[in-house]
Design brief:
CATH architecture of the largest domain: 3-Layer(aba) Sandwich
Order of helices and strands: EHEHHEHEEEHEHHHH
Strand order of the largest sheet: 3-2-1-6-4-7-5
CATH superfamily of the largest domain: SPOUT methyltransferase, trefoil knot domain
Shape: elongated
Number of helices: 9
Largest sheet: 7 strands, parallel
Number of strands: 7
CATH topology of the largest domain: Alpha/beta knot
Strand content: 5-15%
Distance between the termini: 62 Å
Amino acid sequence: MQGEDVPDGFPNLVVVLVAPENPGNVGFAVRAMANFGVTRLRIVDTDPRDDKYAKIFAVHAVDTLENAEIFDSLDDALTDVEAAWGATARKGSNHSVTRATVTLEDLPDPTSLPATVALVFGRESVGLTNDELSLCDIAFHIPTSTVYKSMNLSHAIAVTLYELYKNYAEKPEPRPTDIRAATKPEREQAAFFFDALIDKTTIKEFRIPIAKQVFRNLLHRAFMTGREIATLTGSLRKILKVIEQHENANMP
């Protein structure tokens, strides 16, 4: 129905939390999942579904928390998935087989896989063990400062889902009321009227091409919406009209 939000995101993604130590973090994680269209959650070795703080921090995504599936082991949680991608802050070297990782931006498109893809996140204190990472098809890390590599659990989930959402998520078609960027023809029309105005000024002739180019540079560098470029073009056109009317009125 027009005007309503259309569900989008990743219907085939499931987030797997291995022994999370802070129920509040689980609530924050669930909220981050909702931000990027992921509704399936599996939790290993603990059950925070009824925890007060988990529910408070989940806010409007509490249904995802309450519907989470609980497993005794990571192996059990991954039995029906097509692929499992495990997050780790401890990046291995090229000589490490157990902890060779890719960066977050190198993860493939989860929507291209035919079945469930699991994003696996470990404990807040020590992350995933080598044995747990060995159950994953890919180990990945989020590029961070070398001074402090470890991220909060919910932050790591939010960053990961944002990167995947930005690159791969199924998104609804834009609605007529949605903000859109100004098109190239719209920017060229604004430049056309600016050129006409500059030609009527007393700027030295050798500076005229420079002024026109500077205006075009500004149009290309600035993110302008369709509404903004229309307002700018209309204003330039009206200024030009006033100048022309004044010129015609002063003609002999």
